[in-house]
Structure formats: C-alpha cells, structure tokens
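Hey,
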Amino acid sequence: MKAKGDTRVWTVEVFLEETHDETEAKAVLEVGDTRFGGWGRARRNPSDPELPRVGEELAAARALSDLSHKLLDAAAETIEAYEGRSPRLHG
C-alpha cells in the first residue's frame, strides 16, 4: 500500500453556453498564479433529436481534453526548462 502524502485538490470549473443547435464549453483551472483554460464545442446535426444534455457532455468533454493537453504541454515546458532537454511524456 502506498504511504500517505500531501493531498491537494484542484477544482476545474466548466462553463457552458448554449444556443439552439450548438453548445460551447470552457474548462478553467487555476493552480497558484497560473490559469489554464480549455475549450470545446458540440453542434447538433439537424437530423438528430434535440437532447441538450448530449451537447453539454460532448462540449465539456472536448474542453476538458483541451485542458489536459495544455497541462501536459506546461509540464513538458517546465521539465525542459529544468533539465535542458525535451522530455518524453506519456499520457
């Protein structure tokens, strides 16, 4: 079993803006004095049923995915600045 260490909680806020056939999402994470943001959009095909929750889920998932890529990029930049070489990150 892993020994207990420090616990930190990061809270991501997801903001949704909807029109009739489109949902945009912005995911925001503040870590110390750094703010990261991700963006996503979902558009309803005119032949699909009107299910707003599906658009919200897709847009939010895309915004969170964008946010995760930005966090990976930031970690890689920090490692590169510290070590002087490009890291090989998996994830």
